[in-house]
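Chapter summary example.
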Amino acid sequence: MRKILILPFFILILRVGVAQILDDSTELAYGPKTTQFVYFDEILNNQQNYKKLDTSLYQYDRKFLVDQNSRRFQDLGSHGTALFPVFYDLPQTIGRTSGFNAYRPYFRGTQNIRFYDTKSPFIDLLVYFGGGNQNIVDIDFSRNVREGWNVGFDLHNITTDKQLANNGEADRQVVATAFDFYTHYQNNKVPYQALFYFSNTSHKVVELGGVRFATDSTLEELFEFDNALLRRLDAQNVVRNDQWHLYHDYQVADQFQLYHTLDYTVEENTYQDSRDPAVSLGDYDTYSDAYNGVFLLDADSTNERATFTSFSNEVGIKGDLGSVFYRAYLKLRSVDFRYFLLDPVPSTSEAYLGGYARLNWKEKFKLIGEGELLQGGEYQFKGQLSSDFLHVTYRTMKYNVPFIYNNYFGNHFQWANSFSPVFVNQIEGDLSVRYKAFTFIPKVSFTAYNDFIFFNEDRTPSQASGGIAIASAGGAINFGVENKKGEGLFLENEVVATSVSGGAANAIRIPELFYNGRYYWKGLLFDDKVPVEVGVDAHARSTYFANGYEAVTQQFFLQNELETTGYLKTDFFFNMRLDKFFIGLKWQYFNQPSDGGYFATPFFPGQPSVLDLIVKWSFFD
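The structure predicted for these 621 residues follows.
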Protein backbone atom coordinates (compact mmCIF):
# COMPACT_ATOMS: atom_id res chain seq x y z
CA MET A 1 0.00 0.00 0.00
CA ARG A 2 2.83 2.41 0.89
CA LYS A 3 4.46 1.91 -2.53
CA ILE A 4 1.15 2.67 -4.25
CA LEU A 5 0.81 5.95 -2.32
CA ILE A 6 4.40 7.09 -2.83
CA LEU A 7 4.57 6.66 -6.61
CA PRO A 8 1.77 9.12 -7.55
CA PHE A 9 3.19 11.68 -5.12
CA PHE A 10 6.63 11.26 -6.68
CA ILE A 11 5.21 11.73 -10.21
CA LEU A 12 3.28 14.85 -9.14
CA ILE A 13 6.39 16.46 -7.64
CA LEU A 14 8.34 15.61 -10.77
CA ARG A 15 5.80 17.23 -13.12
CA VAL A 16 5.47 20.40 -11.05
CA GLY A 17 9.23 20.72 -10.53
CA VAL A 18 10.12 20.23 -14.19
CA ALA A 19 7.49 22.76 -15.27
CA GLN A 20 8.98 25.29 -12.88
CA ILE A 21 12.51 24.71 -14.19
CA LEU A 22 11.48 24.98 -17.83
CA ASP A 23 9.21 28.00 -17.44
CA ASP A 24 10.86 30.11 -14.73
CA SER A 25 13.49 32.43 -16.20
CA THR A 26 14.08 34.39 -12.99
CA GLU A 27 17.65 34.02 -11.71
CA LEU A 28 18.14 34.52 -8.00
CA ALA A 29 21.18 36.41 -6.74
CA TYR A 30 21.78 33.96 -3.90
CA GLY A 31 22.31 30.24 -4.01
CA PRO A 32 24.73 27.39 -3.27
CA LYS A 33 27.72 29.41 -4.53
CA THR A 34 27.09 32.25 -2.08
CA THR A 35 26.67 29.94 0.94
CA GLN A 36 29.88 28.47 2.32
CA PHE A 37 30.88 26.52 5.42
CA VAL A 38 33.86 25.36 7.45
CA TYR A 39 34.37 22.77 10.21
CA PHE A 40 35.73 23.41 13.70
CA ASP A 41 38.93 21.40 13.20
CA GLU A 42 39.74 23.54 10.18
CA ILE A 43 39.34 26.72 12.25
CA LEU A 44 41.41 25.27 15.08
CA ASN A 45 44.25 24.27 12.77
CA ASN A 46 44.23 27.42 10.60
CA GLN A 47 42.78 25.70 7.53
CA GLN A 48 39.85 28.06 7.31
CA ASN A 49 39.14 27.51 3.62
CA TYR A 50 35.39 27.77 3.19
CA LYS A 51 33.71 25.17 1.01
CA LYS A 52 30.67 25.66 -1.18
CA LEU A 53 27.56 23.54 -0.76
CA ASP A 54 27.55 20.24 -2.62
CA THR A 55 24.77 20.22 -5.21
CA SER A 56 25.72 16.93 -6.83
CA LEU A 57 23.45 13.89 -6.74
CA TYR A 58 26.23 11.49 -5.81
CA GLN A 59 25.06 9.24 -2.93
CA TYR A 60 22.09 11.52 -2.32
CA ASP A 61 20.00 8.43 -1.53
CA ARG A 62 22.25 7.50 1.41
CA LYS A 63 20.57 9.21 4.36
CA PHE A 64 20.51 6.40 6.91
CA LEU A 65 23.64 6.49 9.06
CA VAL A 66 24.65 2.92 8.18
CA ASP A 67 24.50 3.74 4.46
CA GLN A 68 26.41 7.00 4.90
CA ASN A 69 29.24 5.00 6.50
CA SER A 70 29.37 2.47 3.64
CA ARG A 71 27.75 -0.29 5.72
CA ARG A 72 30.66 -0.28 8.20
CA PHE A 73 28.27 -0.54 11.15
CA GLN A 74 26.24 -3.40 12.52
CA ASP A 75 22.75 -2.24 13.47
CA LEU A 76 19.64 -4.06 14.65
CA GLY A 77 17.88 -3.96 11.28
CA SER A 78 16.15 -0.57 11.64
CA HIS A 79 17.27 3.03 11.42
CA GLY A 80 17.99 4.55 14.83
CA THR A 81 18.90 1.28 16.57
CA ALA A 82 22.17 0.38 18.31
CA LEU A 83 25.37 0.43 16.25
CA PHE A 84 28.75 -1.33 16.38
CA PRO A 85 31.69 -0.73 14.00
CA VAL A 86 32.40 -3.75 11.80
CA PHE A 87 36.14 -2.99 11.73
CA TYR A 88 36.53 -1.97 15.41
CA ASP A 89 37.32 1.75 15.16
CA LEU A 90 39.98 3.09 17.50
CA PRO A 91 38.78 5.43 20.28
CA GLN A 92 39.15 9.19 19.85
CA THR A 93 40.34 9.89 23.39
CA ILE A 94 42.90 8.33 25.70
CA GLY A 95 41.09 9.53 28.83
CA ARG A 96 38.13 8.11 30.67
CA THR A 97 34.81 7.62 28.87
CA SER A 98 31.54 6.03 29.92
CA GLY A 99 31.73 3.09 27.49
CA PHE A 100 28.11 3.53 26.40
CA ASN A 101 28.78 3.87 22.66
CA ALA A 102 25.93 2.06 20.89
CA TYR A 103 24.00 5.27 20.16
CA ARG A 104 26.87 7.75 20.14
CA PRO A 105 27.19 7.81 16.29
CA TYR A 106 23.74 9.43 16.10
CA PHE A 107 24.93 12.44 18.11
CA ARG A 108 26.19 15.40 16.11
CA GLY A 109 29.36 16.36 17.95
CA THR A 110 31.34 19.57 17.51
CA GLN A 111 33.49 17.97 14.81
CA ASN A 112 30.45 17.47 12.53
CA ILE A 113 28.92 20.94 12.83
CA ARG A 114 29.16 23.27 9.85
CA PHE A 115 29.90 26.92 10.64
CA TYR A 116 28.50 28.95 7.76
CA ASP A 117 29.17 32.21 5.98
CA THR A 118 25.94 33.12 4.19
CA LYS A 119 25.10 36.15 2.07
CA SER A 120 21.40 35.53 2.66
CA PRO A 121 19.25 33.48 5.07
CA PHE A 122 19.75 29.80 4.29
CA ILE A 123 17.32 26.95 5.01
CA ASP A 124 17.88 23.31 4.14
CA LEU A 125 14.83 21.05 4.52
CA LEU A 126 15.12 17.27 4.19
CA VAL A 127 12.25 14.80 4.58
CA TYR A 128 12.85 11.05 4.25
CA PHE A 129 9.67 8.97 3.88
CA GLY A 130 11.11 5.53 4.60
CA GLY A 131 9.34 2.27 3.95
CA GLY A 132 8.03 0.63 7.09
CA ASN A 133 7.59 4.15 8.55
CA GLN A 134 11.30 4.82 9.03
CA ASN A 135 11.30 8.58 8.69
CA ILE A 136 13.79 11.44 8.99
CA VAL A 137 13.16 15.17 9.16
CA ASP A 138 16.14 17.56 9.12
CA ILE A 139 15.82 21.35 9.18
CA ASP A 140 18.99 23.47 9.02
CA PHE A 141 18.89 27.24 9.27
CA SER A 142 21.78 29.72 9.08
CA ARG A 143 22.23 33.42 8.40
CA ASN A 144 24.77 36.18 8.81
CA VAL A 145 23.84 38.82 11.38
CA ARG A 146 26.42 40.97 9.64
CA GLU A 147 29.69 40.37 7.82
CA GLY A 148 31.84 38.11 9.96
CA TRP A 149 29.05 37.00 12.32
CA ASN A 150 26.85 34.00 11.60
CA VAL A 151 24.20 32.22 13.68
CA GLY A 152 22.22 29.09 12.99
CA PHE A 153 20.39 26.08 14.36
CA ASP A 154 19.53 22.54 13.29
CA LEU A 155 16.54 20.34 14.10
CA HIS A 156 16.72 16.60 13.54
CA ASN A 157 14.08 13.95 14.08
CA ILE A 158 14.00 10.17 13.59
CA THR A 159 10.83 8.09 13.95
CA THR A 160 10.98 4.38 13.20
CA ASP A 161 8.14 1.92 13.55
CA LYS A 162 8.81 -1.63 14.66
CA GLN A 163 9.80 -3.80 11.72
CA LEU A 164 9.16 -6.91 13.86
CA ALA A 165 5.74 -7.80 15.30
CA ASN A 166 4.24 -4.42 14.48
CA ASN A 167 0.87 -3.95 16.19
CA GLY A 168 -0.44 -1.36 13.78
CA GLU A 169 -0.30 2.37 13.07
CA ALA A 170 2.49 4.29 14.86
CA ASP A 171 3.86 1.30 16.75
CA ARG A 172 7.12 3.14 17.36
CA GLN A 173 10.49 1.57 18.05
CA VAL A 174 12.66 4.70 17.77
CA VAL A 175 11.84 8.34 18.56
CA ALA A 176 14.91 10.56 18.45
CA THR A 177 15.09 14.33 18.49
CA ALA A 178 18.08 16.65 18.42
CA PHE A 179 18.50 20.41 18.50
CA ASP A 180 21.71 22.36 18.14
CA PHE A 181 22.52 26.06 18.09
CA TYR A 182 25.78 27.60 16.87
CA THR A 183 27.38 30.94 16.18
CA HIS A 184 30.70 32.05 14.69
CA TYR A 185 31.99 35.59 15.18
CA GLN A 186 35.02 37.22 13.51
CA ASN A 187 35.93 40.77 14.51
CA ASN A 188 36.57 43.06 11.54
CA LYS A 189 38.91 45.42 13.40
CA VAL A 190 41.02 43.19 15.64
CA PRO A 191 42.34 39.65 14.88
CA TYR A 192 39.88 37.87 17.17
CA GLN A 193 37.29 35.18 16.51
CA ALA A 194 34.97 33.07 18.66
CA LEU A 195 32.50 30.26 18.11
CA PHE A 196 29.91 28.64 20.34
CA TYR A 197 27.94 25.42 19.94
CA PHE A 198 25.22 23.76 22.02
CA SER A 199 23.34 20.53 21.33
CA ASN A 200 20.59 18.61 23.08
CA THR A 201 19.74 15.06 22.02
CA SER A 202 17.13 12.57 23.22
CA HIS A 203 17.19 9.08 21.71
CA LYS A 204 14.44 6.67 22.82
CA VAL A 205 14.46 3.06 21.62
CA VAL A 206 12.19 0.11 22.38
CA GLU A 207 14.60 -2.79 22.75
CA LEU A 208 13.00 -5.87 21.19
CA GLY A 209 15.76 -8.33 22.07
CA GLY A 210 15.60 -9.91 18.61
CA VAL A 211 13.54 -12.84 17.37
CA ARG A 212 13.43 -16.17 19.18
CA PHE A 213 12.98 -19.74 18.14
CA ALA A 214 9.84 -21.60 19.03
CA THR A 215 10.23 -25.33 19.62
CA ASP A 216 9.54 -26.20 15.98
CA SER A 217 10.82 -23.02 14.31
CA THR A 218 12.73 -23.09 11.05
CA LEU A 219 15.32 -20.51 9.96
CA GLU A 220 12.91 -19.11 7.36
CA GLU A 221 10.34 -18.39 10.08
CA LEU A 222 12.78 -15.98 11.73
CA PHE A 223 12.13 -13.65 8.77
CA GLU A 224 8.36 -13.49 9.17
CA PHE A 225 8.59 -9.88 10.25
CA ASP A 226 4.94 -9.18 11.14
CA ASN A 227 4.55 -12.53 12.93
CA ALA A 228 7.95 -12.56 14.62
CA LEU A 229 8.27 -13.96 18.15
CA LEU A 230 10.16 -11.40 20.24
CA ARG A 231 12.48 -11.91 23.19
CA ARG A 232 11.40 -8.69 24.95
CA LEU A 233 8.29 -6.50 24.78
CA ASP A 234 8.48 -3.50 27.13
CA ALA A 235 12.22 -2.83 27.45
CA GLN A 236 13.36 0.70 26.61
CA ASN A 237 16.65 2.59 26.40
CA VAL A 238 16.63 6.37 26.69
CA VAL A 239 19.88 8.17 25.90
CA ARG A 240 20.19 11.90 26.59
CA ASN A 241 23.19 13.98 25.66
CA ASP A 242 23.97 17.69 26.16
CA GLN A 243 27.10 19.30 24.75
CA TRP A 244 28.44 22.84 25.26
CA HIS A 245 31.46 24.05 23.31
CA LEU A 246 33.22 27.43 23.31
CA TYR A 247 36.31 28.36 21.31
CA HIS A 248 38.08 31.68 20.76
CA ASP A 249 41.51 32.84 19.60
CA TYR A 250 43.50 36.05 19.29
CA GLN A 251 46.33 36.69 16.86
CA VAL A 252 49.24 38.46 18.60
CA ALA A 253 51.51 38.37 15.52
CA ASP A 254 51.54 36.74 12.10
CA GLN A 255 53.32 33.70 13.55
CA PHE A 256 51.70 33.55 16.99
CA GLN A 257 48.11 33.13 18.24
CA LEU A 258 46.57 32.37 21.62
CA TYR A 259 43.48 30.17 21.87
CA HIS A 260 41.16 28.72 24.49
CA THR A 261 38.58 25.93 24.30
CA LEU A 262 35.91 25.00 26.83
CA ASP A 263 33.82 21.79 26.62
CA TYR A 264 31.09 20.46 28.88
CA THR A 265 29.17 17.22 28.26
CA VAL A 266 26.41 15.45 30.19
CA GLU A 267 25.46 11.94 29.06
CA GLU A 268 22.65 9.93 30.66
CA ASN A 269 21.70 6.35 29.79
CA THR A 270 18.48 4.91 31.25
CA TYR A 271 17.19 1.34 30.81
CA GLN A 272 13.69 0.26 31.92
CA ASP A 273 11.68 -2.92 31.69
CA SER A 274 8.89 -4.51 33.69
CA ARG A 275 6.83 -7.64 33.95
CA ASP A 276 3.41 -7.40 32.28
CA PRO A 277 1.08 -9.87 34.01
CA ALA A 278 -1.55 -9.35 31.30
CA VAL A 279 0.71 -10.84 28.63
CA SER A 280 0.93 -14.59 28.33
CA LEU A 281 3.20 -16.12 25.72
CA GLY A 282 3.00 -19.77 26.70
CA ASP A 283 6.32 -21.36 27.59
CA TYR A 284 8.33 -18.13 27.18
CA ASP A 285 8.18 -15.11 29.50
CA THR A 286 9.46 -11.90 27.89
CA TYR A 287 10.62 -10.63 31.27
CA SER A 288 11.92 -13.59 33.31
CA ASP A 289 13.23 -15.68 30.43
CA ALA A 290 14.70 -12.66 28.61
CA TYR A 291 17.14 -12.20 31.52
CA ASN A 292 17.71 -15.91 32.14
CA GLY A 293 16.00 -15.56 35.51
CA VAL A 294 18.79 -13.33 36.92
CA PHE A 295 17.37 -10.61 39.23
CA LEU A 296 19.73 -9.00 41.71
CA LEU A 297 17.34 -6.31 42.93
CA ASP A 298 13.76 -6.71 41.72
CA ALA A 299 12.03 -9.65 40.08
CA ASP A 300 9.24 -7.52 38.58
CA SER A 301 10.87 -4.37 37.20
CA THR A 302 14.22 -3.00 36.07
CA ASN A 303 15.21 0.64 36.36
CA GLU A 304 18.85 1.49 35.68
CA ARG A 305 20.64 4.73 34.99
CA ALA A 306 24.25 5.73 34.30
CA THR A 307 25.35 9.37 34.21
CA PHE A 308 28.65 10.63 32.83
CA THR A 309 29.87 14.24 32.90
CA SER A 310 32.99 15.74 31.40
CA PHE A 311 34.34 19.28 31.74
CA SER A 312 37.55 20.33 29.97
CA ASN A 313 39.60 23.51 29.65
CA GLU A 314 42.23 23.78 26.94
CA VAL A 315 44.67 26.67 26.44
CA GLY A 316 47.28 26.79 23.74
CA ILE A 317 49.37 28.62 21.22
CA LYS A 318 49.47 28.20 17.46
CA GLY A 319 50.74 29.89 14.33
CA ASP A 320 52.15 29.62 10.82
CA LEU A 321 55.89 29.61 10.25
CA GLY A 322 56.20 29.65 6.48
CA SER A 323 54.91 26.30 5.20
CA VAL A 324 54.71 24.87 8.73
CA PHE A 325 51.76 25.23 11.08
CA TYR A 326 52.18 24.42 14.77
CA ARG A 327 49.88 24.12 17.77
CA ALA A 328 50.72 23.26 21.39
CA TYR A 329 48.32 23.06 24.31
CA LEU A 330 47.64 22.12 27.91
CA LYS A 331 44.24 20.58 28.73
CA LEU A 332 42.64 19.96 32.12
CA ARG A 333 39.66 17.62 32.17
CA SER A 334 37.36 16.59 35.00
CA VAL A 335 35.15 13.50 34.62
CA ASP A 336 32.54 11.89 36.84
CA PHE A 337 30.59 8.65 36.40
CA ARG A 338 27.88 7.09 38.55
CA TYR A 339 25.07 4.56 38.41
CA PHE A 340 21.64 4.87 39.96
CA LEU A 341 22.68 2.66 42.91
CA LEU A 342 26.47 2.85 42.69
CA ASP A 343 29.09 5.58 42.61
CA PRO A 344 32.12 3.45 41.64
CA VAL A 345 34.79 6.16 41.56
CA PRO A 346 35.15 9.74 42.78
CA SER A 347 35.36 12.61 40.31
CA THR A 348 38.64 12.27 38.41
CA SER A 349 40.93 14.99 37.04
CA GLU A 350 43.08 14.47 33.96
CA ALA A 351 45.92 16.68 32.68
CA TYR A 352 46.98 16.50 29.03
CA LEU A 353 49.95 17.94 27.16
CA GLY A 354 49.55 17.91 23.39
CA GLY A 355 50.73 19.25 20.08
CA TYR A 356 50.01 19.34 16.36
CA ALA A 357 52.23 20.19 13.38
CA ARG A 358 51.55 20.32 9.64
CA LEU A 359 53.94 20.76 6.73
CA ASN A 360 52.66 21.65 3.25
CA TRP A 361 55.40 21.25 0.66
CA LYS A 362 54.76 23.02 -2.67
CA GLU A 363 51.21 21.63 -2.83
CA LYS A 364 52.76 18.25 -3.62
CA PHE A 365 52.31 16.55 -0.28
CA LYS A 366 51.17 17.22 3.27
CA LEU A 367 52.76 15.82 6.42
CA ILE A 368 50.86 15.94 9.74
CA GLY A 369 51.99 14.87 13.19
CA GLU A 370 49.96 15.14 16.39
CA GLY A 371 50.37 13.74 19.87
CA GLU A 372 48.92 13.82 23.35
CA LEU A 373 50.23 12.69 26.74
CA LEU A 374 48.13 12.05 29.84
CA GLN A 375 49.66 12.34 33.30
CA GLY A 376 48.98 8.65 34.09
CA GLY A 377 51.24 7.50 31.23
CA GLU A 378 48.55 7.08 28.59
CA TYR A 379 49.37 8.62 25.23
CA GLN A 380 48.54 8.79 21.56
CA PHE A 381 50.49 9.78 18.46
CA LYS A 382 49.31 10.06 14.89
CA GLY A 383 51.37 10.68 11.78
CA GLN A 384 49.93 11.19 8.32
CA LEU A 385 51.47 11.61 4.86
CA SER A 386 49.19 12.68 2.01
CA SER A 387 49.76 13.38 -1.66
CA ASP A 388 47.80 13.07 -4.89
CA PHE A 389 48.54 9.36 -5.17
CA LEU A 390 49.72 8.15 -1.72
CA HIS A 391 48.16 8.25 1.75
CA VAL A 392 49.81 6.68 4.80
CA THR A 393 48.64 6.95 8.41
CA TYR A 394 50.32 5.60 11.53
CA ARG A 395 48.69 5.68 14.93
CA THR A 396 49.82 4.39 18.30
CA MET A 397 47.99 4.82 21.56
CA LYS A 398 47.64 3.60 25.11
CA TYR A 399 44.19 4.48 26.38
CA ASN A 400 42.24 4.20 29.62
CA VAL A 401 39.56 1.56 30.08
CA PRO A 402 36.00 3.00 29.88
CA PHE A 403 34.14 3.05 33.19
CA ILE A 404 31.56 0.39 32.32
CA TYR A 405 34.26 -2.26 31.82
CA ASN A 406 35.63 -1.85 35.35
CA ASN A 407 32.46 -1.38 37.41
CA TYR A 408 28.78 -2.18 37.01
CA PHE A 409 25.88 -2.90 39.35
CA GLY A 410 22.31 -3.36 38.17
CA ASN A 411 19.35 -5.70 38.31
CA HIS A 412 20.83 -8.33 35.98
CA PHE A 413 24.63 -7.81 35.99
CA GLN A 414 27.36 -6.82 38.39
CA TRP A 415 31.15 -6.81 38.25
CA ALA A 416 34.20 -5.05 39.67
CA ASN A 417 37.41 -5.15 37.64
CA SER A 418 40.71 -3.32 37.53
CA PHE A 419 41.71 -3.72 33.89
CA SER A 420 44.97 -2.31 32.55
CA PRO A 421 45.07 0.38 29.84
CA VAL A 422 44.85 -0.93 26.27
CA PHE A 423 47.80 -0.59 23.87
CA VAL A 424 47.32 -0.48 20.09
CA ASN A 425 49.43 0.18 16.99
CA GLN A 426 47.86 0.80 13.60
CA ILE A 427 49.24 1.59 10.15
CA GLU A 428 47.13 2.16 7.06
CA GLY A 429 48.04 3.05 3.50
CA ASP A 430 46.53 3.38 0.05
CA LEU A 431 47.55 4.34 -3.47
CA SER A 432 45.47 6.02 -6.14
CA VAL A 433 46.39 5.10 -9.73
CA ARG A 434 44.47 6.19 -12.80
CA TYR A 435 44.68 4.43 -16.15
CA LYS A 436 42.33 5.65 -18.88
CA ALA A 437 38.79 5.07 -17.58
CA PHE A 438 39.93 3.03 -14.57
CA THR A 439 40.96 4.08 -11.08
CA PHE A 440 42.80 1.59 -8.88
CA ILE A 441 43.01 2.25 -5.14
CA PRO A 442 44.81 -0.63 -3.35
CA LYS A 443 44.63 -0.40 0.46
CA VAL A 444 46.33 -2.20 3.33
CA SER A 445 45.86 -1.95 7.09
CA PHE A 446 47.51 -3.61 10.07
CA THR A 447 46.38 -3.23 13.68
CA ALA A 448 47.96 -4.86 16.75
CA TYR A 449 46.34 -4.91 20.21
CA ASN A 450 47.70 -5.79 23.63
CA ASP A 451 45.35 -6.07 26.64
CA PHE A 452 42.28 -5.69 24.41
CA ILE A 453 38.97 -5.32 26.29
CA PHE A 454 35.69 -6.82 25.14
CA PHE A 455 32.40 -8.32 26.29
CA ASN A 456 32.52 -12.11 26.36
CA GLU A 457 29.93 -14.83 25.75
CA ASP A 458 28.53 -14.28 29.27
CA ARG A 459 27.86 -10.62 28.31
CA THR A 460 30.39 -9.44 30.90
CA PRO A 461 33.71 -7.63 30.27
CA SER A 462 37.04 -9.38 29.82
CA GLN A 463 40.61 -8.37 29.06
CA ALA A 464 42.57 -10.47 26.59
CA SER A 465 45.72 -12.09 27.96
CA GLY A 466 47.32 -12.46 24.52
CA GLY A 467 47.94 -10.24 21.55
CA ILE A 468 45.65 -9.65 18.58
CA ALA A 469 46.71 -8.80 15.03
CA ILE A 470 44.22 -7.60 12.41
CA ALA A 471 45.46 -7.51 8.80
CA SER A 472 43.27 -6.14 6.01
CA ALA A 473 43.96 -5.81 2.31
CA GLY A 474 41.85 -4.83 -0.64
CA GLY A 475 40.75 -1.55 -2.08
CA ALA A 476 38.65 -0.16 -4.90
CA ILE A 477 38.49 -0.65 -8.65
CA ASN A 478 36.37 2.03 -10.29
CA PHE A 479 35.41 2.56 -13.92
CA GLY A 480 33.84 5.68 -15.36
CA VAL A 481 33.25 7.13 -18.81
CA GLU A 482 31.36 10.35 -19.57
CA ASN A 483 30.78 12.70 -22.47
CA LYS A 484 31.28 16.45 -22.65
CA LYS A 485 27.93 17.08 -20.99
CA GLY A 486 28.93 14.97 -17.99
CA GLU A 487 26.70 12.05 -18.89
CA GLY A 488 28.20 8.65 -18.37
CA LEU A 489 28.35 5.18 -16.84
CA PHE A 490 30.14 4.50 -13.55
CA LEU A 491 31.01 1.22 -11.84
CA GLU A 492 32.47 1.37 -8.32
CA ASN A 493 33.72 -1.68 -6.41
CA GLU A 494 35.32 -1.96 -2.97
CA VAL A 495 36.56 -5.22 -1.44
CA VAL A 496 38.22 -5.73 1.96
CA ALA A 497 39.72 -9.06 3.00
CA THR A 498 40.55 -9.37 6.71
CA SER A 499 42.47 -11.87 8.81
CA VAL A 500 42.53 -11.89 12.64
CA SER A 501 45.36 -13.76 14.38
CA GLY A 502 47.20 -13.93 17.69
CA GLY A 503 46.69 -15.63 21.02
CA ALA A 504 43.46 -13.74 21.71
CA ALA A 505 42.14 -13.64 18.13
CA ASN A 506 38.77 -15.05 19.20
CA ALA A 507 38.00 -11.78 21.03
CA ILE A 508 37.47 -9.93 17.73
CA ARG A 509 34.96 -10.94 15.08
CA ILE A 510 35.31 -9.42 11.60
CA PRO A 511 33.99 -10.91 8.33
CA GLU A 512 36.77 -12.29 6.13
CA LEU A 513 35.28 -10.57 3.06
CA PHE A 514 33.44 -7.25 2.91
CA TYR A 515 32.10 -5.74 -0.32
CA ASN A 516 30.47 -2.50 -1.47
CA GLY A 517 29.41 -1.75 -5.03
CA ARG A 518 27.67 1.15 -6.74
CA TYR A 519 26.75 0.96 -10.43
CA TYR A 520 24.96 3.92 -11.95
CA TRP A 521 24.32 6.13 -14.94
CA LYS A 522 24.15 9.89 -14.65
CA GLY A 523 22.82 12.20 -17.28
CA LEU A 524 20.49 15.07 -18.18
CA LEU A 525 16.77 14.98 -18.98
CA PHE A 526 14.19 17.52 -20.21
CA ASP A 527 16.31 19.48 -22.71
CA ASP A 528 19.47 18.84 -20.64
CA LYS A 529 18.12 20.88 -17.72
CA VAL A 530 17.50 18.20 -15.10
CA PRO A 531 20.41 16.10 -13.74
CA VAL A 532 19.57 12.51 -12.79
CA GLU A 533 21.35 9.45 -11.46
CA VAL A 534 19.94 5.94 -11.61
CA GLY A 535 21.58 2.73 -10.50
CA VAL A 536 22.10 0.01 -7.92
CA ASP A 537 23.87 0.00 -4.55
CA ALA A 538 25.16 -3.40 -3.40
CA HIS A 539 26.64 -4.71 -0.17
CA ALA A 540 27.84 -8.16 0.84
CA ARG A 541 29.84 -9.76 3.60
CA SER A 542 30.95 -13.32 4.26
CA THR A 543 29.66 -15.71 6.91
CA TYR A 544 30.92 -15.18 10.48
CA PHE A 545 29.85 -15.21 14.11
CA ALA A 546 28.98 -11.54 14.40
CA ASN A 547 28.69 -9.95 17.83
CA GLY A 548 25.35 -10.14 19.60
CA TYR A 549 23.68 -7.23 21.41
CA GLU A 550 22.73 -6.82 25.07
CA ALA A 551 20.32 -3.92 25.55
CA VAL A 552 20.71 -3.62 29.35
CA THR A 553 24.33 -2.47 29.06
CA GLN A 554 24.15 -1.30 25.40
CA GLN A 555 27.09 -3.59 24.61
CA PHE A 556 27.86 -5.88 21.70
CA PHE A 557 29.29 -9.18 22.93
CA LEU A 558 30.86 -12.39 21.62
CA GLN A 559 28.36 -15.10 20.72
CA ASN A 560 28.61 -18.56 19.15
CA GLU A 561 24.91 -19.39 19.06
CA LEU A 562 23.92 -18.10 15.61
CA GLU A 563 26.25 -17.69 12.64
CA THR A 564 25.49 -14.68 10.45
CA THR A 565 25.43 -16.25 7.00
CA GLY A 566 26.85 -14.42 4.01
CA TYR A 567 24.40 -12.35 2.02
CA LEU A 568 24.07 -9.83 -0.80
CA LYS A 569 21.83 -6.77 -0.29
CA THR A 570 21.05 -4.59 -3.30
CA ASP A 571 19.16 -1.28 -3.43
CA PHE A 572 17.80 0.45 -6.54
CA PHE A 573 17.93 4.25 -6.57
CA PHE A 574 16.77 7.11 -8.78
CA ASN A 575 17.96 10.63 -7.87
CA MET A 576 16.99 13.90 -9.55
CA ARG A 577 17.71 17.59 -9.01
CA LEU A 578 15.31 20.33 -10.07
CA ASP A 579 17.29 23.52 -9.45
CA LYS A 580 17.42 23.66 -5.62
CA PHE A 581 14.91 20.83 -5.21
CA PHE A 582 16.21 17.25 -4.81
CA ILE A 583 14.15 14.09 -5.18
CA GLY A 584 15.20 10.52 -4.57
CA LEU A 585 13.42 7.20 -4.92
CA LYS A 586 15.00 4.15 -3.31
CA TRP A 587 13.92 0.53 -3.37
CA GLN A 588 15.78 -1.09 -0.50
CA TYR A 589 16.72 -4.78 -0.63
CA PHE A 590 14.82 -5.40 -3.85
CA ASN A 591 16.49 -8.83 -4.11
CA GLN A 592 15.04 -10.12 -0.83
CA PRO A 593 13.87 -13.72 -1.24
CA SER A 594 10.21 -14.40 -0.53
CA ASP A 595 11.04 -16.82 2.29
CA GLY A 596 14.15 -15.33 3.86
CA GLY A 597 16.51 -12.45 4.45
CA TYR A 598 19.69 -11.72 6.37
CA PHE A 599 20.70 -10.88 9.94
CA ALA A 600 22.08 -7.41 10.57
CA THR A 601 23.04 -8.67 14.04
CA PRO A 602 22.40 -12.21 15.30
CA PHE A 603 18.64 -12.66 15.93
CA PHE A 604 17.92 -9.20 14.47
CA PRO A 605 16.68 -9.55 10.85
CA GLY A 606 17.97 -6.90 8.47
CA GLN A 607 15.81 -4.33 6.71
CA PRO A 608 13.13 -6.01 4.57
CA SER A 609 12.28 -4.85 1.05
CA VAL A 610 10.69 -1.37 1.16
CA LEU A 611 10.31 1.73 -1.00
CA ASP A 612 11.62 5.11 0.21
CA LEU A 613 11.03 8.67 -0.98
CA ILE A 614 13.61 11.39 -0.18
CA VAL A 615 12.89 15.10 -0.69
CA LYS A 616 15.25 18.00 -0.01
CA TRP A 617 14.66 21.69 -0.70
CA SER A 618 17.16 24.49 -0.16
CA PHE A 619 16.12 28.13 0.27
CA PHE A 620 18.51 31.07 -0.04
CA ASP A 621 16.30 34.11 0.55
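To summarize the output: The helical segments are 2-23, 40-44, 65-68, 403-406.
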